Amino acid sequence: MPCRHSPRAFGTRLAVPGFSLSAVVLAMALTACAARPGPETLDPIPSSLKDAKSITILAATDRAPAQVTPPIYGVDRGILSYEAITMLEKAPNGGPYPSVHSPDTDPSGDFVATERRALDETAFARHVARMRKKGGETIVIFVHGYNYSYQEAVFRLAQLSAEAGQTIIPVLFSWPSQASVAGYVADRDSTTFARDDLARLLVMLGRARPGGRIAVVGHSMGAWLVMEALRQLRLEGENDVIAHLQVGLAAPDIDIDVFRKQAAAVGRLSSPLTVLVSADDRALAISSRLAGGRPRLGSMSVDDPRILDIVRSDGMRFIDITTMPASDGFNHDRFIAFAARYSDAARDGGLPDGIRQAGVYLLDTTGRVLSAPFTGAARIVAGSQ
């Protein structure tokens, strides 16, 4: 089975009149990657080990389930449904004990599902409340990007949750991606299909936890979906819900002009919206080609005048993570390494030093702020506040 961003798949399936996409991709010296996890990887394997570290993922999806038990959520569109998935961490030798994860590893090899329980919306909200009483401080909603299967998204969130420890309540919103390189256009349509459902989830969680902290993180095409859901909530007058949200966009696959319209509709947030960018993101370079050369937000330079204007007018925080490691050859998932670094800082009491305010930032490989190249940019931003 081809990997998520397979050069062969791009070169043969996404040929677009007017330019040779295969030439672009073949120029990338990418190595092969492992097969993607199938739906059977979420089949529960009961365990009687009481001292193994477990993670509960709360999942909401509008993928249509196959009529089997446990359900298989595939690529078709359906109604919003919910479940709780209990995972155990696996040690490198296969034993179930907590382990340290690397962004270079396939997360499906680090976890095993031990229980899956279908929930209705009321039970889902009650489950969130129970997890809060057990020590969860912040609800973190992960919205995956293009070319993701349901199980891949579950394992990715399990990996991120393991890095964060017991301080978060992990919630997955999985929209009906085709999980195929050739499904880019269909995936874009599916994010539009899922917009109402994500907005509904945000409202439900906001009401289930009034006044509590809720963070929503959108990766790639999922970032567009997050912004559209926020725009819809603002237009519907759900200002109380938005007021308690912390929003992060990782490698957002969004046209820069579209983003400016979205940001204007959403308005300033109580906590600066964070955008993680990487100038050498090759997946977004291909997306830009498909869009007629229009720049994508996630691959723009933080000292671009258009970015500085957004920071000035909308009070956002742009962080260049180009120097951080990526596990895919397309440099499209550096947010995983950033999340690991951020989790270390969070356990020590907050964000990494120097990036708590709105502005533009560049990080080195350790997560430290390199501010020297942005002295002029900092003056522009400071002068607007």
Shape: globular
Cα end-to-end separation = 51 Å
Work out the strand percent. 15-25%
Tell me the structural class.
Answer: alpha/beta
What is the rounded Rg? Answer: 20 Å
Low-confidence spans: 6-34, 93-104, 346-350, 372-385
The count of strands amounts to 10
Q: Which quaternary structure do these chains form?
A: single chain
Spell the H/E element sequence.
Answer: HHEEEHEHEHEHHEHEHHEHEH
**Count of separate DSSP helical elements:** 12
- The average pLDDT score comes to 81
Strand sequence of the main sheet, in spatial order?
A: 3-2-1-5-4-6-7-8-9-10
Helical amount: 25-40%
> How would a crystallographer describe the biggest sheet?
10 strands, mixed
Give a structural overview:
This protein is 36% helix and 20% strand. It has 385 residues and is α/β, with parallel strands linked by helices. Helix 5 packs across helix 6 (221-235). Strand 1 and strand 2 form a beta hairpin. The termini are far apart. Keywords: Signal. InterPro entries: AB_hydrolase_fold (IPR029058), DUF900_hydrolase (IPR010297), UCP033909 (IPR014586). It holds the Pfam family DUF900. Residues 1-34 form the signal peptide.
